[in-house]
Amino acid sequence: MNSISISFLITKPDYADFKTAAAKACIKKSEIRILRVSGCALVLAALLLRAFFSNGFYQNVVYTIMAVVGVIVGALYDMLVHYFVRLRAFPYYEANKEKFTAQNTEFDEEEIHFKTDRYSSVIPYELFYKAYEDGRVFILYTGIDEMKFIPKRAMSEDECSQVRNLLQTKLKEKYQQEGAR
Amino acid sequence: MPTFYEGKPIETMEQTITAKDYASAYYWVQSSFSLMHKREVRAGICLTLAVVIGSMIPGYLIKFTTFWGPVCAILVLLGLAFLFFFVQPNDIKNWAAELYRSNALLALPQKLDIYRDSVVLQNKWEQFTLYWTDFSGCVETKEAFVIHGGRERNLLIVKKDGLSKEQVSKLSAHFSDAFASHYQKIGR
User: What does the pLDDT look like over B110-122, one tens digit per residue?
Assistant: First the structure.
C-alpha cells in the first residue's frame, strides 16, 4: 500500500469543526436516546397537564416552560451544544493562533506519522485509543483527552476513503463514524 | 530537535511515569487552579457554615419549637465537607488514572532534556519540543514538578525521584523564574 500524506494548516473553521466533532464523539448513543425520550416525556406531560389541569395563568406559564425545555432537551440539544462549542472555539483560536501551525500526517500500513515544526511521531495503530470520523474531520485519539485531527478539506475523496478503510481495518471497534459523507 | 536557545540543557533525565504519578500530578494541578479548588478550603467553608448555623440554634428556638431545620442544614454541610475532603480527591485521582490508562504513550520510558526556554521530550514513538511559554503554569509538589496546559501534552511531569537535592533546587529555581507568578509550591 502507498502511504497517504496529508499536509495542512489548521484554520479557524477547521478548529471549530474539530471541537464540534469531539463534542459529538464524547456523547454516547444511549445518552442521546435518554435525552430524546426525556424531551418527549416533558412535552407530553406539559400537553397533558395543560389539557386537564390548567387552572390559571401561572400554571400555563409553567407548562409552557416545560414544553419549551422538552423541545430543547429532546430535539435541539445537539444543535445548541454544537453552537456553543463553535462559539467558544472561535475566540480560543484567535487568542492562540500561534499554536496552530502547519502539519503533515502520513498514513502507512503499520503506523501514522505526525510532523509539525516541534513535534514528530510515528505511532502504531494499536497505540491509538480510538478514531472518530464525521462529515468534516478525522479525529485520532491517543488518549481520552489527547487527540490529533485531520480536516477532510485537506484530502481528496479518494484519499478520504483510503484513510477510512485503513482506520476501519486497523482499529476495528475503536473506529467510530458518524455523519460521514 | 532544534531550539532557539543554543546552550546546553540544564538537566537531562530519563524517567517512566506510572499511573500513581500521573494521578497525583493531575490532582495537584486541579488543586492549584484557585483557592476554591483546594479540598481544605471547600471542606473548611462547609464546616464554618455548619458552626455558624449551629451557633444560631438558640436564636432559632426562640421563634420555632423544633430545631430540625438547622440540624438538617448542619448534617448536609457536614456531608458536603466529608465529600469534598475525602471522596472528591479520590474521584479526581481515579479519573486521572483512567486518562493515563487510555494513553499508551504516557507509560513509555521517556528522556527529558530541560533547556532554559524549552523541554525536549523523547520516547519510543515521539519526539517534541515544548517551550515554557506553551504551558499555563508549573506546580511543584513533594514528588515532582508538574507543568500543565501544554500544547501536545497536557501534563509534563518531571519526577524528583532519582534527582539529587542540588538538582531539585536548580530545577526549582529555574521553573520559578520561567513561570514567575504561574509557579506554585504545594502539598509540602
Answer: 999 999 999 999 9
Number of H helices, E strands in chain B: 6, 8
Report the CATH number that the domain containing residue A114 is assigned in CATH: 2.30.29.30
> Residue B175 sits in a domain of what CATH number?
2.30.29.30
Cβ contacts of B127 within 8 Å, gap of 6 or more? A119, A120, A121, B1, B120, B121
Supply the pLDDT for residue A26: 86
Task: Output the nine-digit C-alpha cell for B165.
Answer: 537535592
Same domain, B53 and B1: no
Q: Distance (Å, rounded) from C-alpha B176 to C-alpha B139?
A: 9
User: Within this chain, do residues B45 and B121 fall inside the same structural domain, yes or no?
Assistant: no
What is the C-alpha separation between A8 and B163, in angstroms, rounded?
41
Residues 99..128 of B with a Cβ closer than 8 Å to A: which? 99-100, 102-106, 125-128
Q: How many domains does chain A have?
A: 2
Tracing cell 513533594 back to the chain, one arrives at B142
Q: Does A26 contact B at CB distance below 8 Å? A: no
Greatest Cα pair distance in chain B: 78
Query: Structurally, how many domains does chain B consist of?
Result: 2
* ipTM for the predicted complex: 0.83
Pairwise CB contact (< 8 Å): B126 & A119: yes
First to last CA, chain A: 24
**Helix/strand/coil (H, E, C) string of A80-107?**
HHHHHHHHHHHHHHHHCHHHCCEEEEEE
